[in-house]
Design a protein that fits this description.
Strand order of the largest sheet of chain A: 3-4-6-8-7-12-13-11-10-9
Distance between the termini of chain A: 37 Å
CATH topology of chain A: HIT family, subunit A
CATH class of chain A: Alpha Beta
Strand content of chain A: 15-25%
Largest sheet of chain A: 10 strands, antiparallel
Oligomer: homodimer
Radius of gyration of chain A: 21 Å
CATH superfamily of chain A: HIT-like
Structural class of chain A: alpha+beta
């Protein structure tokens, strides 16, 4: 059982999940602090738990999807509960839900409660690819369809309030396995930083009668010098005040509150743009670790006119240092205008639709399933 | 000239300092994202800019301090302006200060202004040591005396509002040079996270008539299971809701608002406790990178009864991943009670005062000034 504890001074809940130390390779990272590029679980002795044929190494799937050209007994994208969850599943909740925020301490200074939510892994390919830039576009689109379906499910679960899909790619971005995957976390509380952002978007809507992000987008498209690429429905841009060098946000041009509102055609277009942008980052910074986070409309009651979903790509090129830890004020060494110019050089101009020739071609056959582990 | 830009949605100012890309080794880290343990500047071809004899490689000192047994022409601790500052010095400020927050954009959505503040480096030893655990206690105490003197100076500079001393030790903690050093940053604005914390301490004082940290300390000393070590004046403990595994906060037992209130005797005691705690972390996690941050009372008007200074040690054993970037909600894999128990094993029991036998003895003579660079 995990627990969450409240840091009153910082106004933050912190999740304590000692079970996550048991994840393959993470324990070693904690003990030896060495950069682990190769997951020991993909050595000859032990197969990667995410590869086709290792399904018994993960909990049962909550969703599988298949591309049109996949053989019937194969899956293309597979979603499973995280074997080492940060949040306890709602059915395992032990406290009395009537208590709201049960404190296991008699003292209000040390407030804690059990975690409650969902934690899933989206396994993005049956074979051992490391980046979704290595997948055909229709396969990549299926990953985003899986996000939609699981977000729709979690939106229906009683008392869930916050859900986010995120990807950790590379050791420096917090990944413990190299096989391409992303995660979905859902919680029964709103992290204070998320709540703050929601309050601000509502405040902007109330004051201006418009969505804040729509207003930003209009200006960005007018000025143009922070745009990396755009398609009919989406734009990829380097945000004006990003905390990390070469950060890119991908947004729908027309207001959409929940990511689940995207049509299947739009998902295909989005997948292309994400693949192109990640490839541009990979070409600009070979071997760069990165995270991406998909922020969709709040799960509980909220004005859909206020929230505009976005996918943020966060390359992990610099280390967060003491000043940032002390102040939450970041020092970025690359202006977004320069980052956008650098990345745009690597993006084909004839958007929408990916230049397949530019996308690295993955050898995604069973025979070569582990060839990339020593990359 | 650097600039800061306002992320309205996140309510954060972000500092843009492209000049910091010119720091030795940082550019390489950004391009190749490889773990750099050895600073190229300490190779045979080029001397470390922080070593005795390389004073011409840094700006002129703003402070030098000497231990009693140092030869007259030597310094023991040397403070210099950062050669690659994140903040422009007050005298270089170009905007009209009357404007308060000058926007270089005609659009309020894209607010920016010039940075203004101080950025100094505290070079902690004349010889090439990598950790203050390698220094004799009287030398370590001098480092904290330097912090006091420079904080006192910056407190006197007109319109400065926030100052913090921090240490980045190891590549994963954001260090670009291995020679033991820390930094002081001073700004003319309060980062929003700092402002929030200040508001909360004032709120607690108003409601309870007592300092929040004093109340926490009383409980922690009573329960005892998160205490790592204590001396007559200070306590080292693993905070109840720390974001990172094995975090330790060091606090004065009696309420002190500003770090500058510490007596010279207390500085000696504090230096011992910091050395012991860092050594315990080094023994528990060999080669662990870490940051520490010294948070003192706000520079502008504030109730001294509300703020309690602290030194936070933040080992960088795990990587911040996508969920944390999206929500500012951290997943910690080690309970503070376990961390305190693990670290306490490495701390001598006969406090106060360091067990010199337990402190690694540094060979801090000119002859061996570079022996540790290949560690």
């Amino acid at each position: 059982m995990n627990e969450m504890r409240y840091d009153w001074l910082g106004d933050r809940w912190v999740i304590f999940a000692p079970n996550r130390l048991l994840r393959p390779d993470n324990y070693q990272a904690l003990t030896h602090r060495r950069s682990i590029q190769v997951n020991p679980a993909t050595s000859d002795q032990q197969r990667c738990p995410f590869c086709l044929g290792s399904e018994d190494q993960t909990p049962s799937a909550t969703l599988t999807l298949q591309t049109a050209n996949e053989t019937p007994d194969h899956w293309s994208v597979r979603v499973v509960p995280n074997k080492f969850p940060a949040f306890d599943a709602p059915e395992e909740f032990c406290f009395n839900p009537q208590q709201g925020c049960p404190s296991a301490s008699s003292n209000a200074l040390f407030m804690r409660k059990q975690t409650r939510g969902g934690h899933e892994v989206i396994i993005e390919a049956p074979f051992h690819v490391q980046s979704i830039t290595q997948l055909p576009n229709d396969h990549a689109a299926l990953i985003f369809e899986a996000y939609q379906q699981r977000l729709t499910y979690w939106r229906s679960v009683h008392s869930m309030r916050y859900a986010v899909v995120f990807k950790n790619n590379g050791s420096d971005a917090g990944a413990s396995l190299v096989h391409a995957h992303s995660q979905l976390i859902c919680t029964d509380f709103l992290p204070s930083d998320v709540l703050k952002t929601q309050k601000r978007t509502l405040e902007y809507l109330k004051t201006h009668g418009r969505c804040y992000v729509c207003d930003i987008l209009r200006e960005e498209l007018l000025v143009g010098h922070r745009i990396v690429s755009e398609t009919e429905s989406f734009v990829a841009l380097c945000p004006f005040a990003s905390r990390l060098p070469y950060s890119v946000s991908i947004l729908p041009k027309q207001h959409q509150s929940a990511f689940e509102e995207c049509s299947l055609n739009q998902l295909q277009e989005l997948a292309s743009l994400v693949q192109q942008t990640l490839l541009a980052i990979e070409l600009q910074h070979p071997d760069a670790a990165y995270n991406y986070v998909l922020q969709t409309a709040p799960l509980d009651a909220h004005d859909p006119a206020a929230f505009h979903w976005r996918l943020k790509i966060l390359p992990r090129l610099i280390k967060v240092a003491g000043f940032e830890w002390s102040s939450d004020c970041y020092i970025n060494t690359v202006l977004p205008e320069k980052a956008a110019k650098d990345l745009a050089r690597h993006v084909p101009t004839s958007t929408p639709g990916p230049k397949v020739s530019l996308l690295a071609q993955a050898s995604i056959s069973p025979k070569s399933s582990h060839i990339q582990e020593s990359k």
